[in-house]
Specification:
Layout lengths: L10 E6 L3 H11 L4 E6 L2 H10 L4 E5 L7 H10 L8 E5 L5 H9 L4 E4 L4 H37 L4 H14 L3 E6 L11 E5 L1 H7 L11 H4 L5 H13 L3 E7 L4 E8 L5 E8 L1 H15 L9 H17 L5 E8 L3 H7 L1 H18 L5 E6 L2 E6 L5 H16 L2 E3 L2 E3 L3 E8 L6 H17 L5 E3 L3 H21 L3 E10 L5 E12 L2 E3 L5 H7 L2 H22 L7 E5 L2 H5 L3 H12 L6 E6 H6 L1 H14 L2 E7 L6 H6 L4 E4 L1 H5 L4 H16 L3 E4 L5 H9 L4 E2 L10 H11 L8
Parallel strand pairs: 1-2, 1-3, 3-4, 4-5, 16-17, 19-21, 21-22, 22-23, 23-24, 24-25, 25-26
Antiparallel strand pairs: 6-7, 6-10, 8-9, 9-10, 11-13, 11-16, 12-13, 14-15, 18-19, 18-26, 19-20
Helix pairs in contact: 2-3, 5-6, 5-10, 12-13, 13-14, 18-20
This protein binds ligand C2E and magnesium ion (MG) (2 copies).
The site of ligand C2E has 24 residues, from β19, α18 and β23.
Length: 722
């Protein structure tokens, strides 16, 4: 394929690529009526073509031998003609933002990564072709106009003739035209008087000519933009025509305005309404840089802004900025129980709340499903960043109404304080995410500042995660059972199953792996195993011993497990497979979990109750419970948190325990006190009429065999087998 002919009437697009196939493909794709695709095989060839012809757009390959696309773009931009031509880079080299931003630096209007969608390419190109066409139209019209004015002035005889031509051009012109007159001396556009306007200009201004003629422009457009006034003054002063694109806030339109001086004391304006094109360009920008759901910046824009902040802090001494990385705690619960549409609404509402706290110069982005990131600029003190983070947490904790449900959230926030020594913005963001993980491990709703030590821990966490996978495969989890006794008369009332991870001879405690498993989602298969195993053991005990009626085996359920949409099905399967009566199984869920989104939880709890499974709220007293919800929860038991029981000498703990017990009784729940370590504690709780107790005073969690011994001692046997 040789160089295509450059025809004068059609719009030319330049495509630069060293691969002949690509040139063929692109010209095929872009060829349409009125568009001529000119091909160049390398940078230098494209530069000389640009010097000779007016192109509407250049599509430029990045990777070319010799002069690469970036350098070619820079050279083209350095020429008078090339400066005005929009550029789109097309490349397959890398999706890394770095390259993209390099492209923008050298003046790309847009960026397409191979393989690109043909339709997107065509649409993008069409916007620029339209733009170019409009520009040519303005140019032609104003040239004709200038010619007419010249003729008018030059030839008195031809006046009426020309006048008629002028008039027809004037009225049928697609572009708005206004002739202004002004006093001698420097021009102030606001004070210039309107001599004449054409119908197109009436339309642009939204007023009839009679409303406008003979009035000062400032009276018609009171908010004339300052730079537009400067521009007009300069044209009047120099006598040279000029072109500007400006937004006019009075009429809310973008105009491309050409101004020239047709005679002394006169200024002519030819205006083209380019609002639609500007909107189209903005849409393209938005698609590249905006999160479509929330309208916030997307990750690409965020990283770009972050690069700028990092740059600024290198140049300016004492420049303080901060990056916040925010993750909504338990957001997935919303998606799984209320549906994705509700989830989207929540994300939009959360975005609004965060925007409300951030200041104008800050960047707020949605960087992942339920993850948000902020850059806080121009901070006076590092403490300011923490205050913003806490304010966001407070805002999120305030209820929001979604689909008639009142929801409130907590978020875990990681903070990196700048200036910090990072080469890439991605690394900084990643460290903010690591700090966020630490905040989340503290139980949600917390803010943590990044420290270097966290990096090594994150790396350790990675290996724990891998080992947990193996542990499941190799069957390394064990359940230990801690007995729960009746406090009034002693008898054994059940066990709580507590998981351990056995690696060789070592038993790893749940605190050391459950949070990890929770974060990675591995808690779901681990929890399913624990559930099935508890059901198996409970069923066996039920067969062998004459268990009391209220005897239960309690299993802890994590938030993620509880959020599983098929939890109820999982449970019935575990019960059926082991022939366990549902009333023997008790699920322990934490107070923080249930209060996170009580509306949703109530729903799920009802299904559990219908199945006949019992539910207890674990670690009660450590979270924040709403009494009105508690009343509506179909649960059986409150478990007083160990922290209160362990220190009953503290007066407030004493009051708290007393309150919890009487609250539970009023609501028809029974109470288990955890962590009873001595007789004084046991007696005090018995006196309060707390029904059940669990703790080292009675027994530590024990293996299945030892639990059997306890059962033998407390309950009669059904069979003689051991
Ligand atoms: P939890 O459900 O509140 O369990 C009670 C914890 O308190 C157990 O720790 C138990 O050993 C300990 N404990 C009981 N009595 C006393 C006492 O008198 N003094 C002291 N100092 N401690 C006492 P453990 O077994 O380390 O479990 C810790 C937590 O790990 C549990 O708290 C529970 O939240 C979680 N967990 C355990 N097993 C599972 C499981 O299978 N699934 C899930 N999701 N979480 C589990
Ligand atoms: Mg528990
Ligand atoms: Mg507990």
């Amino acid at each position: 394929m040789g160089k295509a002919e450059i025809a004068p009437e059609v719009i030319d697009i330049l495509v630069v690529d060293d691969e002949q196939v690509n040139l063929l493909l692109l010209s095929g794709l872009l060829r349409r009526e009125g568009v001529n695709v000119v091909c160049a095989h390398n940078g230098p060839e494209s530069i000389s073509l640009v010097a000779e012809h007016d192109f509407a757009l250049i599509l430029l390959d990045v990777m070319m031998p010799g002069m690469d696309g970036f350098t070619t773009a820079e050279r083209i931009r350095a020429t008078e003609r090339g400066r005005r031509i929009p550029l789109i880079f097309i490349t397959a080299i890398s999706k890394e933002q770095r390259h993209i931003f390099k492209g923008y630096e050298s003046g790309a209007v847009d960026y397409l990564i191979k393989p690109y969608e043909h339709e997107i390419l065509r649409n993008k190109v069409q916007v620029f072709v339209d733009m170019h066409r409009q520009r040519l139209a303005v140019q032609h019209a104003s040239e004709a106009l200038a010619k007419t004015v010249d003729e008018l002035r030059a030839s008195g005889q031809a006046l009426s003739d020309s006048r008629a031509r002028y008039q027809s051009l004037f009225t049928s012109m697609f572009n708005g035209f206004a002739l202004l007159s002004h006093e001698d001396g420097p021009l102030d556009l606001a004070q210039a008087r309107v001599v004449e306007i054409n119908p197109a200009m009436e339309q642009i201004l939204g007023r009839p000519g009679s409303d406008v003629i003979d009035r000062q422009l400032g009276a018609i457009l009171p908010n004339l933009e300052g730079y537009l006034r400067d521009f007009a003054a300069e044209v009047a002063r120099s006598g040279k025509s000029g072109l500007i694109e400006s937004y006019l806030s009075d009429i809310k339109r973008w105009l491309r305005i050409q101004a020239y001086v047709p005679g002394p004391g006169l200024l002519a304006l030819v205006a083209e309404d380019v609002t639609a094109r500007r909107k189209a360009e903005e849409t393209i920008q938005e698609r590249t840089f905006q999160d479509p759901l929330t309208g916030l910046a997307n990750r690409a824009l965020f990283l770009d802004r972050l690069t700028q902040s990092m740059e600024r802090s290198r140049r300016r001494l004492n420049y303080l900025y901060a990056v916040l990385f925010l993750d909504l705690d338990r957001f997935k619960l919303v998606n799984s129980s209320m549906g994705h549409a509700a989830g989207d609404k929540v994300l939009r509402a959360v975005a609004e709340k965060i925007k409300g706290v951030a200041r104008g110069l800050d960047t707020v982005a949605r960087s992942g499903a339920d993850e948000f990131a902020l850059i806080l600029e121009e901070l006076k003190t590092p403490g300011e960043a923490l205050r913003v983070a806490r304010r966001i947490c407070q805002e999120l904790a305030r209820p929001m109404v979604v689909d008639d449900h009142s929801l409130h959230f907590s978020a875990s926030v990681g903070v990196v304080l700048g200036p910090a020594d990072y080469a890439q913005p991605e690394e900084l963001l990643q460290d903010a995410a690591i700090a966020m993980e630490h905040a989340r491990a503290l139980g949600g709703g917390k803010v943590k500042v990044f420290k270097w030590a966290m990096r090594t821990r994150a790396q350790n966490a990675l290996s724990v995660n891998q080992s947990l996978h193996l542990a499941l495969e190799r069957d390394q989890f064990r359940l230990h059972y801690q007995p729960i006794f009746r406090l009034n008369g002693g008898g054994l009332a059940g066990f709580e199953a507590l998981i351990r991870w056995q690696v060789d001879d070592r038993l790893i405690a749940p605190v050391d792996f459950i949070p990890q498993a929770e974060q990675t989602g591995l808690i779901v298969p681990i929890g399913q195993w624990a559930l099935a195993e508890s059901c198996r053991v409970a069923a066996e005990w039920d067969r062998r011993f004459a268990l009391p009626r209220d005897f239960t085996v309690a299993v802890n359920l994590s938030a993620k497990q509880f959020a599983q949409p098929d939890l109820v099905r999982q449970l019935s399967r575990a019960l059926e497979e082991n022939h366990l009566e549902p009333g023997r199984l008790k699920l322990e869920i934490t107070e923080t979990l249930v209060m996170q989104n009580p509306e949703i939880v109530v729903h799920k709890l009802r299904s559990l109750r219908e199945m006949g499974v019992k539910v207890s709220i674990d670690d009660f007293g450590t979270g924040y419970s709403s009494l009105s919800y508690l009343r509506r929860f179909p649960i059986n038991t409150l478990k007083v948190d160990r922290s209160f029981v362990s220190d009953l000498d503290a007066f407030e703990n004493l009051i708290i325990v007393r309150t919890i017990v009487s609250l539970a009784h009023n609501l028809g729940f029974d109470v288990v006190a955890e962590g009873i370590e001595n007789e004084r504690q046991r007696d005090f709780l018995a006196e309060l009429r707390c029904e059940y107790g669990q703790g080292f005073l009675f027994s530590k969690p024990v293996r299945e065999l030892a639990a059997l011994d306890l059962l033998c001692a407390s309950c009669g046997r059904h069979d003689a087998s051991s």
